[in-house]
Amino acid sequence: MGKVVLGVTVGVAVAVCAVAALVVGRRVRSRKKWKRVVGVLKELEESCETTVGRLRQVVDAMAVEMHAGLASEGGSKLKMLLTFVDNLPSGSEKGIFYALDLGGTNFRVLRVELGGQRSELDPDVEQQPIPEQLMTGRSEDLFDFIASSLHRFVEKGNDSVQSSIMKELGFTFSFPVKQTSVSSGVLIKWTKAFAIKDMVGKEVAGALQQALDRKGLNMRVAVLVNDTVGTLALGHYHDADTVAAVIIGTGTNACYWERTDAIIKCQGLLTTSGGMVVNMEWGNFWSSHLPRTSYDIDLDAESPNPNDQGFEKMISGMYLGDIVRRVILRMSEESDVFGPVSSRLYVPFALRTPAMAAMHEDDSPELTKVAKILEDVLDISGVPLKVRKLVVKICDVVTRRAARLAAAGIVGILKKIGRDGSGGITGGRSRSDIKMRRTAVAVEGSLYTQYTMFREYLHEALHEILGEDIARHVVINVTEDGSGTGAALLAASHSSSGSVDNIQLV
Ligand code: BGC
């Protein structure tokens, strides 16, 4: 009996020990896996580091590249494109003008009535998504689609489609274009999700004009502008201190007002105002000071345009979600904290930036939105709270870097035009010698307007780089539909009736 009891006791003890060993073993293993995941996060944080020192290097690099791009054709990855916009709307424009805005995920048609006095503009706007197949098909199909939308829009409104009075149109085309005049230019390359091969090297406004003619619309493309240029026009219309405009949406870019004598690659360029808006195409900016990760390298290599648009791929809405997806995939492959590796994690662009922003800004204590998005979008379910917190942290690191780099880009422009309080690119004067003028920058794009954390990080970085004394002279103004409304304004100020007064910026 005693032996039996002893045997049972020993058996139980052995079983308990085995279970305990199993539990401890599992804990040790899971701690190791957790450590690995934390290691991946740490590595990400380190390679995304944007100290003020590093941001200042990016500022300097941006200003130097701007000079190089203005000095010679191909002198820099920054194209610094001439826009032939040598005056900005003054407020005295009158009449009815239309605009078409093509470039992001959505396409807009606008009609603006201008009363000749600087006033609140209240354009009629219609927006629709561009069918995906049109972004990669034939140019004629895309332009016919645009012309049909405009035709329907005009029909619905008060103007007659076949009116004997020709209407003037501003065309916002948000891709790199080598302009030959304010109303003509050829497409250099596509960016973002567009890739219509037969259009590269072709005259853009001409292609639209032909489509309008095919539809029997009595309209003339009066100006062909980049979205940044439209935004600058509207920004300047509302605030005459506006010197630059930045778009941070699906793609990113900036333009600014430059003195013609600084545009060395185009010697002899004369404008009545002495200046011209330059479309920087900053999405293609590159510098060794940019904090690049292995995820950026892979994203670039797998993109349809490798070695192109490097700055854009770190900043804009088209890419941020995909960087986060890549980090989660790596974590998921290195440990099972996300459960078995979800096949959705291998799908490029499965996680879009709006979903990423929603996870980042989830303020519920249990991070329920994060759980839902992981499940709905990436097919990852049942992850514990600490893993959901990890996801929020990844979003934070990726967005913070993007916003701070965009801020450095803005200060780079201010430095180039001597508005950063440092005495310009050649320096020399001390900060206290310089009287800072009020300087406004117009900003548009969903990343900036709809992603609070992005916006806050950008402002914080502007203040850190410039210092409070200078930063209080720099105003960021958000414009609404500036890319389109600004194009209508520019169509008015470059209207063939030519009856408006133009103003100089400097
Ligand atoms: C284009 C620019 C455009 C920007 C914002 C970039 O991908 O190259 O021309 O201004 O996106 O839409």
From TrEMBL:
Residues 41-237 form the Hexokinase N-terminal domain. Pathway: Carbohydrate metabolism; hexose metabolism; Carbohydrate degradation; glycolysis; D-glyceraldehyde 3-phosphate and glycerone phosphate from D-glucose: step 1/4. Residues 244-492 form the Hexokinase C-terminal domain. InterPro entries: ATPase_NBD, Hexokinase, Hexokinase_BS, Hexokinase_C, Hexokinase_N. Pfam families: Hexokinase_1 (PF00349), Hexokinase_2 (PF03727). It is an enzyme of class 2 (transferase). Keywords: ATP-binding, Glycolysis, Kinase, Membrane, Nucleotide-binding, Transferase, Transmembrane, Transmembrane helix. Coiled coil: none annotated. Its EC number is 2.7.1.-. The chain crosses the membrane at residues 6-25. The keyword Signal does not apply. Belongs to the hexokinase family. PANTHER family: HEXOKINASE, HEXOKINASE-4. This is Phosphotransferase. It comes from Hibiscus sabdariffa (roselle).
